[in-house]
Write a structure and sequence with these properties.
Largest sheet: 5 strands, parallel
Strand content: 5-15%
Shape: globular
Bound molecules: adenosine-5'-diphosphate
Helix content: 55-70%
CATH class: Alpha Beta
Number of strands: 5
Radius of gyration: 16 Å
């Protein structure tokens, strides 16, 4: 089994690239953002707790996403591998996740970090706001909060995974196809 993590600021194209990886390498996509939005839509208790936090551009509690991720993994014992998109986002999530995977005899093969500038994040999210109906994409103040949170809480994961020699950077400023070509080369190298 091959397991990959995609990290990057909001609007970096994590979801887009994860979907392409799923198709080409027969992996299963686990996006905590998508899972949370599904909980909100279904009106579950967890969804109700998450809604205000997400709409304001804040993270939901670590235990909440860990619960969702564990349940997704447990429900797909036949998966040939997973792409974790938008998870882990804090070092607390990363270490809890590492212990959980270990208990299952699993390990992360590689962490793909998509690098884009804060200006590109703004442009991409303004564009996405015209296509998708996400409250957290509507106001600049909220987008800026998500960018700041990324730098403060998620960037520490770079060192975390560098220490484990799992960290790989991809320049996220090109076309979808260009970026995917670079990711494909990386995955093939890591799968050897
Ligand atoms: P984006 O990467 O563009 O912000 P996502 O769909 O990945 O979009 O996430 C949307 C929101 O869901 C985040 O801003 C956050 O509120 C919440 N969320 C998603 N994943 C996590 C996580 N691993 N930990 C905490 N909150 C999360």
């Amino acid at each position: 089994m091959k397991h990959f993590i995609i990290i990057g600021p909001p609007g970096a194209g994590k979801g887009t690239q994860a979907k392409l990886m799923v198709e080409k390498y027969n992996l299963r996509h686990i996006s905590t953002g998508d899972l949370l939005r599904a909980e909100i839509k279904a009106g579950t208790k967890l969804g109700q707790m998450a809604k205000a936090l997400i709409d304001d551009g804040n993270f939901v509690p670590d235990e909440m996403v860990l619960k969702l991720v564990k349940s997704e993994i447990a429900h797909h014992p036949d998966a040939s591998g997973f792409v974790f998109d938008g998870f882990p986002r804090t070092t607390t999530q990363a270490s809890a996740f590492e212990s959980y995977l270990k208990s299952l005899g699993m390990d992360v093969n590689g962490v793909i970090s998509i690098i884009i500038s804060d200006e590109t994040v703004m442009e991409r999210i303004h564009h996405r706001a015209l296509i998708e109906d996400r409250k957290d994409d509507m106001r600049d103040e909220i987008i800026r909060n998500r960018i700041t949170t990324y730098h403060a809480k998620t960037e520490p994961l770079i060192d975390y995974y560098k220490k484990q020699e799992k960290y790989h950077e991809i320049d996220g400023e090109g076309t979808i196809e260009d970026i995917f070509a670079k990711i494909s080369l990386l995955i093939e190298r890591l799968s050897r």
